[in-house]
Specification:
Layout (H helix, E strand, L loop, with lengths): L5 H4 L5 H17 L4 E3 L1 H13 L3 H11 L4 H15 L17 E7 L7 H10 L3 E3 L9 E2 L6 E5 L2 E7 L9 E8 L5 H10 L11 E2 L4 E3 L3 E8 L1 H6 L23 E15 L2 E14 L9 E3 L4 E7 L5 E7 L7
Length: 329
C-alpha cells in the first residue's frame, strides 16, 4: 500500500549523503580495516540546518546537494523526516510498540556571536536541535528485536533482511545485512555500492523462508570522524570557505561566517535482543580570521555491510560495515 507521504519522502536520502557515507566506509573499512557506522539521515538534517542559515551561491550549492529547490521544501522535508523518526502520540509522545529512535544534532557558534531569533527558532522548533555555544546531549534508545528473516542471493553477495515490529501504519523499519560471497569481498562490495548508489534505495526482491544455517555475530562499536574534508572533496565547498561562505542568516553582524568543522559520531549494537543505535552530528561555525537456488544459508563469518532503513519512505538511517565484531566490544 502506498501512503501519501511516500512521493515526498523519496527525495530525502539524496545521493550526496549516501555517497558521503559510502566514501567513508571505503576509506575506513576497506583501507584502514576499522568497523564503521554512519547516519545519512543525520547528515541530511545537519546540512538542512546549515541551509536555513545560508544565502546566495552557498544556499544554491546546498540545494543541489539536498536535492531541493527552496528553503520551504527543505524545511518541509526535514519536518517529515523528524516525524518519521519519532511520530507523536497523544499519550506518551511516541508510537506504542514502534522502534524508538533518537538523534542529537547541533550547531555550535563561536563565542560572542549573537544568534538571530529566526534561526534559533528554526533549529529548535523544526529540527529539535540546538544552536548555541554549549555542548549537546546524545541519548541512546533501543529498537525492538527482529521477528523474521528474509534472504536472497545476488551477484557476488547475499542479503538478509530483519524487519522490526511496528504498530504504526506509515513506518516499517528493517535491518539489512550484505554478505559478500568471497571472504575478502567487502571492498568490492563497497565499490559496487559506490558505483550504483541506487542500491541503497532499491526494493530488493527477497523471499521469506526458513534459514536452517543462520548466524550473525553480536557486535558493538562506536565510530566518529570529522566530515568537512570528505564533503569538500565531493564538491560541497562553499560553506567551508572562509572567504566565500554566505552564512548570513545565523547571527547578527557583518563579519563573514563559515563552517569550521562537522563532527559525526555513531554507536551501533546488535545482539539477540535487537538493535541499539545512536547518532549525533555537530557543526562548528566560526567567523572569518555519507532459476535454481541452493539451500538458503546466511553465515556472516567474514566482513559484511549493514543498513537500517525505513521501508515505506526509503530513508536510510544508518549504514556501516563490520570487519571484526570483537573490536570495541
Amino acid at each position: 500500500m502506498e501512503f501519501p507521504r511516500q512521493a515526498e519522502t523519496r527525495r530525502f536520502n539524496t545521493s550526496f549523503c549516501l555517497q558521503l557515507a559510502n566514501n567513508i566506509l571505503l576509506e575506513n573499512a576497506a583501507e584502514n580495516g576499522s568497523n564503521t557506522v554512519i547516519s545519512p539521515f543525520s547528515f541530511h538534517l545537519i546540512l538542512s540546518m546549515i541551509a536555513a542559515g545560508s544565502k546566495g551561491r552557498t544556499l544554491k550549492q546546498l540545494f543541489y546537494c539536498l536535492g531541493s529547490t527552496s528553503l520551504e521544501q527543505i524545511n518541509s522535508s526535514a519536518s517529515q523526516m523528524i516525524d518519521l523518526a519519532s511520530p507523536a502520540n497523544e499519550r506518551n509522545g511516541s508510537a506504542i510498540g514502534d522502534p524508538d529512535l533518537c538523534f542529537a544534532n547541533g550547531v555550535w557558534v563561536a563565542e560572542g556571536l549573537n544568534l538571530k531569533p529566526y534561526f534559533q527558532e528554526i533549529v529548535a522548533g523544526l529540527y529539535h536541535a540546538v544552536a548555541k555555544e554549549a555542548d549537546f546531549a546524545n541519548k541512546q534508545k533501543s529498537m525492538p528485536g527482529p521477528r523474521l528473516q528474509q534472504e536472497g542471493s545476488f551477484a557476488g553477495f547475499k542479503i538478509l533482511k530483519l524487519p522490526y515490529k511496528t504498530n504504526h501504519p506509515t513506518r516499517k523499519f528493517a535491518m539489512y545485512f550484505f554478505l559478500p560471497d568471497a571472504r575478502d569481498g567487502l571492498k568490492d562490495l563497497l565499490h559496487m555500492f559506490k558505483a550504483n548508489p541506487g542500491y541503497f534505495d532499491k526494493r530488493f526482491d527477497l523471499v521469506e523462508e526458513k534459514i536452517p544455517d543462520f548466524w550473525v555475530p553480536r557486535f558493538r562499536f562506536e565510530f566518529e570522524f570529522e566530515a568537512s574534508e570528505a564533503m569538500i572533496g565531493m564538491g560541497l565547498d562553499l560553506p567551508f570557505d572562509r572567504y566565500k561562505a554566505e552564512l548570513t542568516e545565523m547571527v547578527y553582524g557583518t563579519r563573514r561566517l563559515f563552517v569550521r568543522k562537522v563532527f559525526h559520531k555513531c554507536l551501533i549494537e546488535v545482539n539477540e535482543e535487537g538493535t541499539e543505535a545512536a547518532a549525533c552530528t555537530a557543526v562548528i561555525i566560526e567567523q572569518q580570521s555519507m532459476s535454481m537456488r541452493p539451500i538458503a544459508s546466511f553465515v556472516a563469518d567474514h566482513p559484511f555491510m549493514f543498513m537500517v532503513k525505513e521501508e515505506i519512505s526509503g530513508v536510510v538511517f544508518f549504514v556501516g560495515s563490520v570487519l571484526n565484531p570483537l573490536l570495541n566490544c
